[in-house]
Amino acid sequence: MQYNNETVQATAKLKGCRMSARKMRLSADIVRGLPVSKALGIVKFTRKEGARHLEKMLLSAVANWSVLTGEEADEYGLVVKAIWVDQGPQLKRFLPAPHGRAHRIRKHSCHVSLVVENTVALPTDFVVEEEVAEEIEASND
To answer: Which CATH number goes with the domain that contains 73?
Structure first.
């Protein structure tokens, strides 16, 4: 079988996660640039709340890659190419304080984007179906 040099990227997005971007970045920095299999192992045993969200996102991105290519993800050495965490909207609440005052409480949220890419070349007869690619992109937005 002949192989080409084409790499296929798949994304997964998490929007409105009820956690501050600063806390989520601690977990995101751990998996950036790692192979997906190693990243899943690390995230599974990391004792951070953000790690639970990242584990689901990694599995979702791998599933998106499999649907996009029609191949099994294990054979092609998927790598976490990029992961970034953006600040989301804040929920503003008030807490009663002494002497009739109120203290503001800001409940932070974040948006996380994850991109995985294969390191092993795909077969030359491989063609990404445009309809499947459009469906995946529409579901991620």
So the answer is: 3.90.470.10
Q: What is the pTM of this model?
A: 0.80
24 is written with which tokens?
């989520």
The residue range of the domain holding 63 is 9-138
Closest CA to 117 of 73, 84, 86, 85: 73
Encode pLDDT of 69-128 as tens digits.
Answer: 888 877 678 999 999 999 999 999 999 999 999 999 999 999 999 999 988 776 655 555
Q: Is 128 within the bounds of a domain?
A: yes
What span, in angstroms and rounded, lies between the C-alpha atoms of 22 and 117? 25
How far is residue 43's CA from residue 53's CA, in Å, rounded to a whole number?
9
1 falls within a domain: no
**For the packed helices 21-31 and 36-44, what is the interaxial angle rounded to 10 degrees?**
130
